[in-house]
Amino acid sequence: MIGLVLNAFGNGLCITSNMGSGVWTAAAVNLNMWLGVNVGTMLFVFGVANALTNLILIKKIDIKRFVAEVLYILFFSYFVDIFTNLLTMAGVQHLPMLVRTLISFSGVACFCIAISLYQRANIVMHPNDDTTNILRFLYLKGNSTAAQIIDFIPPILIVVVAFVATHSIYAVNIGTLFSILLNGILIAESDKLIWPSLKHNFKTEDVQEG
């Protein structure tokens, strides 16, 4: 629950600062501008696609895991809306650019800490973060930075394709670059510095048959 709320708050900071969204959010925004599909709908579709991808990566059908991740998306979206509305009412979007840049960076740091917490707890998490967790421990020998880089490839490709179609890029700014460059590093450092007694609870035998 701490991870869920902190993740939503961090995303709310990034959205209201208007200094760049996370790459998956940016991909949704660019598809919206190209195809006219609602951003929230695209984020939900991305989440379901991630949850299905996770079943492929763990090489087994885990209905409980899939349902839990889809439910997480629903609650996560609700809290993002709450924090975005509250921060908008507080006037964050009208602050000077430098302040909004720092707020955007703080938002990225918040959701990286959140990811670190619920990936270590390994109870329920956003399906996209479960993807990076699976990649990290099943395929990349614990390297969180490499897992984040691989996870960023699909949304970056979506942004590129949308750019070719529309000749414009939306929701990409310095905050997005900060997220791309430092997500993995911030998660790895959070593992060490934030609640260090909470150890990774990822067990390969729980996700692979045989």
Q: What labels would you give this structure?
A:
210 residues; mainly alpha
Quick synopsis:
By secondary structure, this protein is mostly helical. The chain has helices at 2-17, 23-35, 39-58, 63-89, 97-121, 127-139, 144-166, 174-193.
Please describe the biggest sheet, giving its number of strands, its sense, and whether it closes into a barrel. none
Structural class: mainly alpha
Q: What's the total count of β strands?
A: 0
Mean pLDDT: 87
Q: Which term fits the overall shape?
A: globular
3D architecture notes:
The model has no long low-confidence stretch (mean pLDDT 87). The longest helix is centred in the middle third of the chain and has 27 residues, at 63-89. Helix 2 runs parallel beside helix 7 (144-166) and helix 6 (127-139) packs across helix 7. This protein is 75% helix and 0% strand. By secondary structure, it is mainly α.
